[in-house]
Amino acid sequence: MSALVVGGAMIEAVRGDITREPVDAIVNAANSTLLGGGGVDGAIHRAGGPGILSECRALGGCEAGEAKATSGGELRARFVIHTVGPIYRDGRQGEAALLAGCHKRSLEVALELGARSVAFPAISCGVYGYPVHEAAPIAVRAVAEFLRAHSGIELVRFVLYSPEVYREFEHALEMLRPSPGRERS
Ligand code: AR6
């Protein structure tokens, strides 16, 4: 586990299965239909039961960079915040801004719901093909920026399935840590 305090809140990176997280809200890496899919999306719908899909049907889809919430169904989390990451092409099609936007919008929705602890997977780093060494610093920085600007969220936990992805997020968190001689970007 790797952790950093930012703006009075904690950002953590852990290895694990996000469907088991006992946080207030987990974020789903969905697609624009919000009607389910593979990867972490499939795992969340399987673990949370059919009620989540029924709620998603009423949401009318979601654009990349946006986020919409449902209940957590049978999950331990009270809410699922469904966001849609960018499909990675060559990194010059606005992917970074969309990925940062997913994190920011998800946290805005979390605040509206009164959620104080939020777990994120590595959005876009699976089927959507975002190279994780590029995505991890974008994700971590977007969260840190949000936490510096807003109060109300106490914990943001990145829950990473594979050791390689975990290592990239751990490194990205390490790069955010203020240290003598290192400029904060
Ligand atoms: N807990 C945490 N992380 C997980 C879990 C889990 N249970 N299962 C997979 N991951 P992906 P994307 C990791 O493909 O790239 C879906 O079909 C996985 O190892 O789930 O945003 C949607 O419907 C990877 O590191 O999401 C969309 O069509 C990360 O979660 C599309 O995939 C994200 O991989 C979205 O693609």
Gist?
By secondary structure, the chain is of the alpha/beta class.
Q: Which features does this protein show?
A:
single chain, 185 residues, alpha/beta, seven-stranded mixed beta sheet, 5 helices, 7 strands, 37% helix, 21% strand, globular, binds ligand AR6
Describe this structure in words.
With 185 residues, the protein is an alpha/beta fold. The chain is 37% helix and 21% strand. It has helices at 39-48, 50-57, 95-113, 132-149, 163-176; strands spanning 2-6, 9-15, 25-30, 67-71, 79-84, 117-120, 155-160. It has a seven-stranded mixed sheet with strand order 1-2-7-6-3-5-4, with helices on both faces. Helix 3 (95-113) packs across helix 4 (132-149) and helix 4 crosses helix 5. The two termini are 24 Å apart. The mean pLDDT is 96. The structure holds ligand AR6.
